[in-house]
Amino acid sequence: MVARDIARSLSEDTAKRLWAKIDKRTPEACWEWKGTKNLGYGRLSVGGRPIKATHLVLIFDGRPRENNLYALHSCDNRACCNPAHLSWGTHQQNMAERDERNKYDRNPRRGEGKSQAKLTAAKVKLIRRSALQGTQLAKLLGVHTATISDVRRGVTWRHVR
Q1: What are the CB-based long-range contacts (under 8 Å, 24+) for 121-127?
Q2: Cβ atoms 60, 10 nearer than 8 A
Q3: Which terminus of the chain has a lower count of CB atoms within 10 Å, N or C?
Q4: In a shared domain, residues 14 and 54
C-alpha cells in the first residue's frame, strides 16, 4: 500500500485504535506497543492490510512516509511508538545506526539462549533418547509435535549432542 493510499484510509477510528494500544505513561520514555507484533514491531490492520504501528505514529504526527523510507528508532526498542524516538530514514541509515550502536548480533543465540525457547538442552537429550511417541513427548513437555519431530530429525537443536 503506497503512502497516499494509507493516508486516504486513515480515519479517526484508526487513530483511536492505534493510540489505544500504546502505553504512553511516561512522555520521555519509550511508549510500548501493546497490540499485535511481528518480529517485535507493532502491527495494526488498516483497510484489511497490516501496517507497522511506527509508520502510523509518524503519519499521525504529521510526518508522511515518502519513498519507502523506514521508521528508525533512536531508542533501539522495536516496540516503541513514541514519536520523539522515531524518524524516517533509508535502509542504509538504519544499518549504519545499527552498526554504530553495535546492535548487530554477529553470533546469534542458539537453544536456551533464545528468549522464545521452550526447550532446554536436557529436554532435547531426553527427546532424542526417549522411546515415547512424539505426541506423548509433546504433551509431556508442553510443545507441539512438530517441535519433537524437528529435534529428532536434527532440523533444530543440532548443536546439542
Answers
A1: 121/157, 121/160, 124/151, 124/157, 124/160, 125/160, 127/151, 127/152
A2: yes
A3: C
A4: yes
